[in-house]
Amino acid sequence: MPRIIVDVMPKPEILDPQGKAIAGALQRLGQTGFSAVRQGKRFELTVDGEVTEEVLEQARHAAVTLLSNPVIEDVTRVEVVKDATIGVSE
Amino acid sequence: MSETPLIGDFSPAPDAGLSGARIGVITFPGTLDDADAARAVRLAGGTAVSLWHGDHDLQGVDAVILPGGFSYGDYLRAGAISRFAPVMEQVVDGAKGGLPVLGICNGFQVLTEAHLLPGSMIKNNHLHFVCRDQKLRVENNSTAWTAEYAAGSEIVVPLKNQDGQYVADEKTLDELEGEGRVVFRYVDVNPNGSRRDIAGITNAAGNVVGLMPHPEHAVEAGYGPDSSAFGPVGVRGGTDGLGMFTSVLKKIVGAN
Amino acid sequence: MSDLNQRVQSRLETPAEARNEHGHHLGGPADAVEHIEGRKFNIDTVEHAAATPDTPLPWAELGLKEDEYNRVVEILGRRPTAAELAMYSVMWSEHCSYKSSKVHLRQFGDKVTEEMKKDMLVGIGENAGVTNLGDGWAVTFKVESHNHPSFVEPYQGAATGIGGIVRDIISMGARPVAVMDPLRFGAVDHPDTARLVHGIVAGIGGYGNSLGLPNIGGEVVFDSVYQGNPLVNALAVGVMRHEDIRLANASGAGNKVVLFGARTGGDGIGGASVLASESFDDSKPAKRPAVQVGDPFAEKVLIECCLELFKASVVEGIQDLGAAGISCATSELASNGDGGMHIELTSVLLRDPTLTPGEILMSESQERMMAVVTPQNVEAFEAILAKWNVEYSWLGEVTGTGRLIIDWNGETIVDVDPRTVAHEGPVYERPYHRPEWLDGVQADAFAGSAADASRPASGEELKAAVLELMASPNMCAKDWITNQYDRYVRGNTALAMPDDAGVIRVDETTGMGVALSTDCNGRYAYLDPYTGAQLALAESYRNVATAGAVPMAVTDCLNFGSPEDPEVMWQFAEAVRGLSDACMTLGVPVTGGNVSLYNQTGGVAIHPTPVVGVLGKFDDVARRTPSGWREDGQAIYLMGTTRDELDGSEWANLRGHLGGKPPVLDLAAEKLLGELLINASRDGMIDAAHDLSEGGLAAALSEMALRFGVGARIGLGELCERDGVDLFTALFSESQARAVVAVARSEEVRFKDMCTARGFAHLRIGVVDTQNEALDFQGQFSLPLAELKEAHEGTLPKYFA
């Protein structure tokens, strides 16, 4: 069954305590190749049947109303992926 | 300036006999219940030793407690960053050599992230932080930390957590059950959706124990839960958790 | 989607524009400031300002009135620079300057006797007041509001409210030891209430639990008057040794100024001047700036780091950064000190490198502190910060010039007398008058009104009434909320919810400790703000005494509507007058607090809500009195007199009535009742005590029985006869200065003799009964505890779980 992927990230200007703590840990572990970390969320919305424009629009709406808090987060991706396990080809 | 104790650093006179046993309490950044764990050790008669996460040094202690809290904010996963603390190298080595190690709440989470205990903790099934007086059954009284309890006896200690739902795959759960390594089980209410009502477990050798509830908050009459599984007590008079600390102290003193 | 949801939604969609708008304005006048490659600015220097007097500045957008702006020009003798304008606008906002409330608040400092000052080590004006506990111990406590931010973003608003009040406590040199939260929401069944309850409760828990501070009490009230303006107040208490008391001042020329903790980002820019000073109004475009996000882990580390700094005596003065950020910290430290201060603003560590100087000065990024350190102590200071992995940067030093000078890359952008920024802001004598509608409201008593048409009288009706009361949103069990807070951490909690007061042990050797309670009945204050504020104090005082502690000090959070409405301003003036008079009568000084104005939406103000916190002292917390009985056969006594007082009561509220006059206040009786309860606790005469307040005797007896699940046999015939009231009134009246106690049989004679000797009314109304699991009102009705418990505990889960 196809799924719609929604990625949500903290707004760039908003403090991300999670990312900050992870960045500090990476430095202490000697993994110094990264200058910053930001931690976001990924949602997978499974769709029964075809992903119509209407369904996609619903996902976009859900992304900005429920899945993200527009005060502190941005929706950075709303995208359809076909699930390989049921053999759907492009 | 005088050296005055900050709240929680005061030591009552330890019981003679057990005071020779030294138990380390590790403070990670974001640890909250370190003063409580140290107080529990003292009230049980032992000597508490503060250990710092950044030191490669256990100061020769006879046992180690990883206390509760939100180390590193629990931001990545509970315990995921603390397991890499310098002091954890000595804790892991010590645990493998038989050193008694107790992880409470966040400390339990650190022990699972460090692979000293199997399984993991995820968010409570009801998704809220929960603080309640919780009844537990002592399923295994042969560990370093539970010998003072009768097998099958019940105790009441506070429980308080956000990520307290114990999970592991079925094979691991069957192994834990089969080998008698489930140490504590929730009674009456499963407060977080933990698999098979598991509240605490041990390693095969019985020296490493981890549990989500907080025995260190049920050690002093007047500041514990309102009830005890052993009979009526005064207001906030429950001290059912003290046995965990006397267990390890007696084991240490007996072995010396 | 409801209207309200739509309004919230439309607000949520505008922050980007709002912020850009600020970025432009704060950069300064267009001809003087522009971004180059997003990092460098042409800076509006003092020199430039002097040379370009006619450049227009966006003072109105920043919330300054024209006469206020003109006053800034007059003070400086020239137009302000963009950075100076940012500082003055934010520091002269209602939130920071108390410009509407100052003239009234003076009464808290004036109506004080020498006796009241005896134990006050630090009074109003510092971050929080400090009270002497003896044996070298001191305690500091304060309650603050975070109302508007919590409506916009409930989780972060409530979380950062806890963070802010805890930093106030740390900056006095104390270790924070507990928090409490007085909360007021709209109607329990309104669709927006669940959003706020879930976010606010989770935010308080998420932040407070992660700091390792027990949450030991507070209030939860539901009333549609708070629908668009929930009240999120936060109280924190801390303890210290006398020698550890720190003040916010920068003294000693040559001493270094350091900023440490989190980096500075764009959080809450303009929040202090814009967000907290203007009510939400659909007709104006939203000016809501970026929301502050809290990092409780950073704050926990900051607490431990600061305590180690205090222990090592390496900071001379310290100030937390809250509203108005660096503007506030630098101007307050400098004006409270004996000289001036000179700092380089480019030394501030930034999370967002595009911030302009004005934005850096106004940023409300959380978890930051500013300190003054002698040159000799710099190395020791840096070692402690390195141990805790806390970032810091040295900004400059204390000077003897009397000026606050701020440079940007060596060019001066601020050159002011710091007192004109921090302390000599505008003061308004706002007009006020008694609302004309008040006479009509006060004349509309509950008794005999349409709402009182079917007053319960039979046993069955009274039983149903008690069940209805105890299941109502305001009287129901709050466990669903308080179970999301840690009440055990630190191991010193001797009492917490649902007992009358939270009790914390301070000294583990002696058992000395403190009790705290916060209270306010907004309906009483609506009916009569003068008496209502006094009743809030009386209840809080009574709660602390009921737990067995001697009341010592007061903090207040005065939540009101718009001061520009003369009727609201009258409510405010009356409440302050009432509270300060009552504090004087009871002999307990106000040591600090907070004012939150503009709590109104679309012209409708909240009920006046002066939340009053009282702190009391125990010589040994082992003597504290819990609110429930447990011992079979103990005698149950009602202390005090019951009048026919149902106006503004919880029962009238259940019937949708609000009118008449609040219960009669008798401070002498309150004081005497307090003394009796404290003596009875000290001498071991009573094993349980509970004050009577909302819901009257019916609520008190129900709560006492449910506390430990132990029933009682109650007979109220003699009470009705003595006080000339019917059974319904005996159960539901909210007459003040009353408490119910459980007395051990062996102590009964001594207890009665004590009350008689002091001339205080007392009557045996029942006996504890561990066999019969019910509250048995003999000859009337029997209320099984299981039924009562189910009604009492089911309400919040029904709406929110």
TrEMBL record, chain A:
Q: List the SUPFAM superfamilies hit by this protein, alphabetically.
A: PurS-like
Reaction(s) catalysed by this chain, per the record, are: N(2)-formyl-N(1)-(5-phospho-beta-D-ribosyl)glycinamide + L-glutamine + ATP + H2O = 2-formamido-N(1)-(5-O-phospho-beta-D-ribosyl)acetamidine + L-glutamate + ADP + phosphate + H(+)
Subunit annotation:
Part of the FGAM synthase complex composed of 1 PurL, 1 PurQ and 2 PurS subunits.
Among its keywords, does the record have Ligase? Answer: yes
Q: What is this protein called?
A: Phosphoribosylformylglycinamidine synthase subunit PurS
Name the Enzyme Commission number(s) assigned to this protein: 6.3.5.3
User: Where does this protein reside within or beyond the cell?
Assistant: Cytoplasm
From TrEMBL, chain B:
Read off the PROSITE patterns from this record: GATASE_TYPE_1 (PS51273)
Among SUPFAM superfamilies, the record links this protein to:
Class I glutamine amidotransferase-like
- Keywords recorded for this protein, A-Z: ATP-binding, Cytoplasm, Glutamine amidotransferase, Hydrolase, Ligase, Nucleotide-binding, Purine biosynthesis
Catalytic residues in the record: 105, 214, 216
Query: Where found, per UniProt?
Result: Cytoplasm
Cross-referenced InterPro entries: Class_I_gatase-like, PRibForGlyAmidine_synth_PurQ
Reactions that this protein is recorded to catalyse: L-glutamine + H2O = L-glutamate + NH4(+); N(2)-formyl-N(1)-(5-phospho-beta-D-ribosyl)glycinamide + L-glutamine + ATP + H2O = 2-formamido-N(1)-(5-O-phospho-beta-D-ribosyl)acetamidine + L-glutamate + ADP + phosphate + H(+)
Name the job this protein performs: Part of the phosphoribosylformylglycinamidine synthase complex involved in the purines biosynthetic pathway. Catalyzes the ATP-dependent conversion of formylglycinamide ribonucleotide (FGAR) and glutamine to yield formylglycinamidine ribonucleotide (FGAM) and glutamate. The FGAM synthase complex is composed of three subunits. PurQ produces an ammonia molecule by converting glutamine to glutamate. PurL transfers the ammonia molecule to FGAR to form FGAM in an ATP-dependent manner.
Please give the subunit comment from the record.
Answer: Part of the FGAM synthase complex composed of 1 PurL, 1 PurQ and 2 PurS subunits.
Q: Per its record, how is this protein called by name?
A: Phosphoribosylformylglycinamidine synthase subunit PurQ
Q: Which organism is it from?
A: Arthrobacter hankyongi
From TrEMBL, chain C:
Q: Where does substrate bind?
A: 145-148, 167, 292, 364-366, 596
- Has UniProt tagged this entry with the keyword Ligase? yes
Subcellular localization, as worded in the UniProt entry: Cytoplasm
Enzyme Commission identifier(s): 6.3.5.3
Q: Name one Pfam family in it.
A: AIRS_C
Q: What is its main location?
A: cytoplasm
The UniProt GO MF terms for this protein read:
phosphoribosylformylglycinamidine synthase activity
Q: Which domain of life is it from?
A: Bacteria
Q: What does this protein do?
A: Part of the phosphoribosylformylglycinamidine synthase complex involved in the purines biosynthetic pathway. Catalyzes the ATP-dependent conversion of formylglycinamide ribonucleotide (FGAR) and glutamine to yield formylglycinamidine ribonucleotide (FGAM) and glutamate. The FGAM synthase complex is composed of three subunits. PurQ produces an ammonia molecule by converting glutamine to glutamate. PurL transfers the ammonia molecule to FGAR to form FGAM in an ATP-dependent manner.
Name the chain's protein: Phosphoribosylformylglycinamidine synthase subunit PurL
Q: Whose protein is this, by species?
A: Arthrobacter hankyongi
- The record's gene field reads purL
